[in-house]
Each structure stands twice: as C-alpha cells, then as structure tokens.
Amino acid sequence: MRYRISGKQIDVGDALQTHVKSELGETVEKFSQRPTDATVIFARDAYEYSCETTVHLSTGLTAAAKGHATDIYAAFENCREKMEKQLRRYKRRLKDHHRDRTEPVEFAGAPMYVLAANGETSDMEPDSLQPMIIAEMETRIPSLSVGEAVMQMELAGTPLLVFRNEKNGGVSVVHRRDDGNVGWIDTSAG
Length: 190
What we know:
The chain has 190 residues and is α+β, with helices and mostly antiparallel strands. The protein folds into two domains: 2-98, Double Stranded RNA Binding Domain (2-Layer Sandwich); 105-117 and 130-189, 2-Layer Sandwich (SHC Adaptor Protein). The protein is 30% helix and 39% strand. The chain has helices spanning 14-31, 72-89, 91-100, 146-156; strands at 2-8, 35-45, 48-57, 62-69, 107-115, 133-144, 160-165, 171-176, 182-186. The chain has a five-stranded mixed beta sheet. Helix 4 (146-156) links the parallel strand 6 and strand 7 (160-165). Helix 1 packs parallel to helix 2. The model has no long low-confidence stretch (mean pLDDT 81). Belongs to the HPF/YfiA ribosome-associated protein family. Long HPF subfamily.
C-alpha cells in the first residue's frame, strides 16, 4: 500500500510516519485484502490536533475518517478507530463485492464547477441571474449498484453521492436525509 503522510503547517516526523504506516496498514489489511493507497493529513488548530485519513480500495471504493485530540498520536488513534469501525461494519459487503466484481469500479469523467456565493445581503436585485463560475475541474463519477453507492457514501462520510446506476446506465443520486434515512434520486425512472 502506498502512503502519503503530510502535515498542514506542522512537521510530521519519522516516528509518527512509521507509527501511522504500521497501525493503519494493519487495520486496513484486516478488513480489506487489497488496499491501494492511503492519504493521511495532520493539522493543528490552537490546542487541538486533527487527523484526516482517506483509504482507496482496489474495488474503487473509498473510506474516509477524521479524528481530533490534544495529542497528535491520540488524534491519529481516534481517526484509526473510526476507520476500523467503518471497515468492520462493511466487511461482509466489501468481501462480497470482491467476489462478485471481477474488475474495479469504472469511472466516467464529468465537468464540475464551483459557483461564487452571493455575499450580498441587501434587498437590491442582482445585475444578472447567472452565477459566476470561480473554478472548473474534472470529477469522476463511478458506475455502481444502488447498494454499493449507499455503502460508498457511508464509507466516505459524505452527505451525497452522484453515480451511474449499473442496472440502467442512468445518473442517480443517493443522499442522507434530515430524518437520518437515505434518499435515492433515480433519473431514469421518469
């Protein structure tokens, strides 16, 4: 497994890097036999350290976790425990997908735009109703089943996931609702 361990305005020493590689490697290997790479980012905010970890699996799925503590090692351990809990929760489903899926998840490219927030709080009408694009980038849309999409959304800790439905080829969205349930928007059902 490839590791990218870095710090935001802090120095990440060799001892911490060795600790992260051994502990995270052991945790991920226990639940997923084919991890490809991991990104670990440490940051400090006043008195608290944070650790953000993202692990990419060979199936194309991504698991992410965050941890906070007053000690940098404790922040990593908190993050590792959350990652372990997610992977343990989905271990059976991850293993089943390895058997059913002989090839990794396919991804399609799509343009993604970042629109400027309207910072005006006045009651005046804006000059134009067209939003201002402040960034353009490429994003990857996976081809998944609905169950895999919900699992990916949970593993990544995101409130929303856009995916191409393997069953019908249409673009679909799964999202976390305010009531705690998961919503599914299927554009091909129209």
